[in-house]
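User: My collaborator sent over this chain with a note saying "see what the structure looks like." That's all I know about it. Can you take a look?
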Amino acid sequence: MNKFLPLLILIMSPLLASDVITQRQDSMQDFNKLMRSATQSLKSGETEGLSQIYVDIEAIMTNYPTLFPEDSFEGKTKASKNIIDDRSTFNQISSEAAEWAALAKIAADNNDLETLQQHHQNLYGSCKSCHSRFKN
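Assistant: Without extra context I'll predict from the sequence alone. Here is the result:
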């Protein structure tokens, strides 16, 4: 049995990496949908429902760095291997995005549209920063 374990690991590694690639792609699609919904609400001056959107965004961005193990940069992925080389910056940007989402939630709860719009813009800026550094 012990002789087969390394072979099993070798066979399963690409499948597990593929699964995490799918998870992070699904996570980013969910994130994009949430951001679009938030942007539409903000353009119309609505704050109803935004609190939950930002809770969901915060959860996604808190978990997001875990979806980039070192063996997950081959195959159908647009993620740059720069994430491996500069993991601390990648994690920091994700953490900042989660913080902006948390602040946007507070502003939404307080119906503070001006502050909410600023936090939303900062959140969007985190997205742009991450993509410019870490997306192929």
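A starting point for your reply to your collaborator: The two ends are 41 Å apart (CA to CA).
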